[in-house]
Amino acid sequence: MNSSLERSRKIRTAGVYAFFIIGSVIMVFPFVWMFLTSFKTVEESMIIPPTILPQAWQGKNYSDATASLPFLSLYKNTALMIFWRVVCAVVFSSMAGYAFAKLNFKGKNILFSLVLIQMMLPSQIFITPQYQMLAKLGLTNTVFALVFPGLVSAFGTFFLRQAYLGIPDEIAEAAYLDGCNQWQTFVKVMAPLTKSSMAALAVFTAVFAYGDLMWPLIVNTDINMMTLSSGLATLRGQFSTNFPVMMAGSLLAMVPMVVLYLFFQKQFIEGVAMTGGK
Amino acid sequence: MTGNKVYAGKRARSESMWGYLMIAPTIIGLLVLNIYPFFDTIKLSFSKTRPFGLYELRGIENYVKMFSSAEFWRANLNTIYFCILTVPLGIFLSLIVAVMLNTKIKGRVVFRAIFFLPMVVAPAAVAMVWKWMFNTEYGIINTLIGHKVNWITDPNIVMVTCAIVAVWSAIGYDAVLLLSGLQNISKSYYEAASLDGATKVQQFFHITLPMVSPTLFVVLIMRLMSSIKVYDLIYMLIEEANPAITSAQSLMYLFYRESFITGDRGLGSSVVIWTVALIGLVTAVQFWGQKKWVNYEV
């Protein structure tokens, strides 16, 4: 009786492992293939049946990719865009989230409904006028243009308001009685308590800013002002049949985020799980 | 007594002052970046684009043009087809992955990280490698199956190709969300069910599924919304010159092309307004339908 239970448990564990191993191969293989192809010559990439490992590992595709795309600028633009979007989202959303959760003022509910309305509308409905504003001000092809739609975050405000709602009022009250004014209470006492929510919002903002394609394509058409995503779209046009170069370019574009992910895997996944459902 | 009152009044005033100061950046930002653009897009959808960024109100001209365009209706069909191909399958697979990740086995953290990986890779890069693997002549997929399928250029297949990439990309994300729902289910339910002799399959249908249904509903809404808005994957997989473009062009791709390639922002705005209405309709139907299957008890 016991041993048959034990056996069925073992079979089930083996089944789960089999599932995960097959699944992992499906998830990882495209990246492995990208890596291997990026070291092959165009001629080798067209051999049928394909070679698995490159006959000779050569880095020419990487020099070709970096020659046709200014990768240093792309890294810089992408990093700056992510940095400012994260800073703006976390700082402004913390302030507004705290005020909406903990402070009393007239018109609070009506003002908060603006936040909810923005959250419900897809971002594409704002794109054309946002672009026209920037074009009128002559601010296209700048880092500011990349950051522009992310200067404030309705979702972040909503999300951090939830975090502040979860903190008992007594804590703010105690700080107030200790002589802190509203601002000090917020910065020194309340905000540090939402650290994990702020981190989650930062991860969420960074991942989606990094993946965004339509906005950078529209607003920054100068190749030196593109992001990694929009730069790749340009590379796709230039090397439409040279897949090894495109693989090299794609790999260069994905490496920084993947390296960050490998180090902060837990924070990435938990951040997304916490902000989930947006 | 009076001292207290003065004190309380002063405090309330300072509280509301700080309240306004602290929401000011966000509210000003929302007004400039979202509320004004929202009304401006509506206005644009009733206007004709003139040179030098000028517009001329033209009533429903853009909408008439849009509704009489075969390309527009095709984009609707494509978008709906994409949703049908990706949403049920994607959520089904994510649920299986989440259930598997919820078992007590060694290395599940590693597997979770692997399934989540596509989320941290820009869709542009993801699309590139799949485009290469789906290449008709030299792609590894056709080599493996031994047939020359025109994954990217055959109008009848191209949407399936996009759907495969989309499902593959989103599985880990949806599974992580569902997993957090699964982890909230109390172990005591399963223990009680085991004592009553319920099999694992029975437990899944009678405990897991009803208990995870609120999370499942959130994931469904989110996935459906982002599928209706699909753009980047299709844009990267299918270039303008591809003969299959009309069979793969989604509503948002059409919006992008009309607004920023053709330069007809009025028509582009009508497309985006239509899409928003469609999303609203689909979401409303979902919220209405949830009463029948989402379990909010416990």
Question: How would you sum up this structure, described in words?
Answer:
The complex is a heterodimer of chains A (278) and B (298). Helix content of chain A is 75%, strand content 0%. Chain A is an all-alpha fold. Chain A is flat, with a radius of gyration of 24 Å. Chain B has 13 helices and two strands. Chain B has helices at 2-45, 61-67, 70-101, 108-116, 123-133, 140-145, 158-183, 187-195, 200-228, 232-237, 245-248, 251-262, 265-289; strands spanning 47-50, 54-57. The mean pLDDT of chain B is 90. Classes of the chains: A mainly alpha (278), B mainly alpha (298).
Major β-sheet profile of chain A: none
Number of helices of chain A: 15
**Rg of chain A (C-alpha, Å):** 24 Å
- What integer value in Å does the Rg of chain B equal? 25 Å
List the helices and strands and how they pair.
The complex is a heterodimer of chains A (278) and B (298).
Chain A: H1 2-37, H2 42-45, H3 60-68, H4 71-102, H5 108-120, H6 124-136, H7 143-147, H8 154-165, H9 169-177, H10 182-190, H11 195-211, H12 214-219, H13 228-238, H14 243-263, H15 265-275
Helix pairs in contact in A: 1-14, 3-14, 4-8, 4-11, 5-8, 9-10, 11-15, 13-14
Chain B: H1 2-45, E1 47-50, E2 54-57, H2 61-67, H3 70-101, H4 108-116, H5 123-133, H6 140-145, H7 158-183, H8 187-195, H9 200-228, H10 232-237, H11 245-248, H12 251-262, H13 265-289
Antiparallel strand pairs in B: 1-2
Helix pairs in contact in B: 1-13, 2-13, 3-7, 3-9, 4-7, 7-9, 9-13, 12-13
